[in-house]
Amino acid sequence: MLDHLVLATPDLASSVAALTADGIALVEGGPHVGVGTRNHLAGLGDGRYLEVVGPDPEQPEPDSPRPFRIDTLAAPRLLTWAVRVPDLDAALAAARDAGHDPGPGRAMSRRRPDGELLAWTLAFPPDDLGGVVPFVIDWGSTPHPTASLDDGARLAGLTIGHPEPDRVRSILRALGADTADVVVGESAEPVLTARIVLADGTEKVLV
């Protein structure tokens, strides 16, 4: 199932301020130590959430590029998304059997502002087709981030555009991510578009 959307930004503070002004209630997530990033989160209902991630000015420059192409961005962008699975190894094996390389598993963690440590495993595909192919995440025994988030906003749908929509659909099937709320269509360039309904009923579009 869809776990979360990733909005990457070169300036976390300004993006959080802009989204908050638009009515998206974000809370501080915490730093990804050694990676050079930190995040803020907003609940989107049904166990899904929005992650806004950018450089952490309190960390030194990392030895390798920050994830989600953050170091190359000139403006915020809905860059990719994640699919949640209960067993990462099994999900990766099933995807490979179906002809998709989801990448190797990797352990990560961050500490929330209240001191609780969250730990998870994930896998980034070596080719995400411009961000439209999701990465896979397994939260294991860690409480899911949405357990501490308000559901003031709701994800109304995610649209994927790509020059090769049939290829994208095939990969989503391999990942078990071809759900009704994810629509794939043809576009000149890879693009993700999320429709979010705010608490007052207005709609916000993220790209």
Account of the 3D structure:
The structure is a single chain. The chain is mainly beta and 207 residues long. It has helices at 12-21, 88-97, 165-175; strands spanning 2-8, 27-32, 37-43, 49-55, 77-84, 105-111, 117-123, 135-138, 154-162, 182-186, 191-197, 203-206. The chain has one domain (2-151): 2,3-Dihydroxybiphenyl 1,2-Dioxygenase, domain 1, CATH 3.10.180. The strands form two sheets. It has an eight-stranded mixed sheet. Strands 10-9-11-12 form a four-stranded mixed sheet. α3 links the parallel β9 (154-162) and β10. It is globular, with a radius of gyration of 16 Å. The two termini are 20 Å apart.
Characterize this entry briefly.
With about 210 residues, the protein is mainly beta. The protein has helices at about 10-20, 90-95, 165-175; strands at about 1-10, 25-30, 35-45, 50-55, 75-85, 105-110, 115-125, 135-140, 155-160, 180-185, 190-195, 205.
Topology:
Elements: E1 2-8, H1 12-21, E2 27-32, E3 37-43, E4 49-55, E5 77-84, H2 88-97, E6 105-111, E7 117-123, E8 135-138, E9 154-162, H3 165-175, E10 182-186, E11 191-197, E12 203-206
Parallel strand pairs: 1-4, 5-8, 9-10
Antiparallel strand pairs: 1-5, 2-3, 3-4, 6-7, 7-8, 9-11, 11-12
Strand order of the largest sheet: 2-3-4-1-5-8-7-6
* CATH C-level: Alpha Beta
Order of helices and strands: EHEEEEHEEEEHEEE
State the helix count: 3
- Mean pLDDT across all residues, rounded? 96
- Summing up helix and strand content along with how strands pair, one would put the structural category as mainly beta
Q: How many structurally independent domains? A: 1
- Rg of Cα set: 16 Å
Largest sheet: 8 strands, mixed
CATH topology: 2,3-Dihydroxybiphenyl 1,2-Dioxygenase, domain 1
**Uncertain runs:** none
The CATH H-level homologous superfamily? 2,3-Dihydroxybiphenyl 1,2-Dioxygenase, domain 1
How far apart are the termini? 20 Å
Q: How many strand units?
A: 12
